[in-house]
Design a protein that fits this description.
This protein is of the alpha+beta class. The chain has helices at residues 21-29, 82-94; strands spanning 6-10, 15-17, 38-43, 50-56, 62-68, 73-79. It contains two helices and six strands. It has a six-stranded antiparallel beta sheet with strand order 2-1-3-4-5-6, with helices on one face. The model has no long low-confidence stretch (mean pLDDT 89).
């Protein structure tokens, strides 16, 4: 059985279903300049409408790409802090739509 919502796949073949912030941190930490240069996170479906990727840069740091076709979003940034990258991706992915996920309800007291 695949991921309930999304999966993270590295170039080296590592996969984590529904990765936590800590799991993303681990995958990004393992990137190198030779045979494991990127991680892609996307829904576990045939034609995903969004994805995020992190790639190691030759000059140091990381390139982060976030794309969501349903919201017409496409952002490319660079960063050096793996902790910040993992946190920001976790927050960004939490705002994505997932079929079958319960809707969030906000109540005012």
């Amino acid at each position: 059985m695949g991921a309930q919502y999304y999966g993270a796949d590295s170039e080296s073949g590592d996969r984590i279903d529904d990765p936590s912030q800590d799991a993303l941190f681990m995958l990004i930490s393992e990137l190198n300049g030779s045979d494991n240069t990127f991680v892609v996170v996307q829904p576990d479906e045939d034609d995903p409408v969004w994805f995020a990727s992190v790639a190691i840069l030759a000059e140091g740091g990381y390139e982060i790409v976030r794309r969501d076709t349903t919201r017409n979003e496409h952002e490319v940034t660079t960063a050096t802090s793996i902790n910040n990258i993992a946190r920001d991706l976790t927050i960004w992915m939490a705002a994505r739509d997932f079929p079958g996920r319960p809707t969030r309800q906000v109540s005012e007291f």
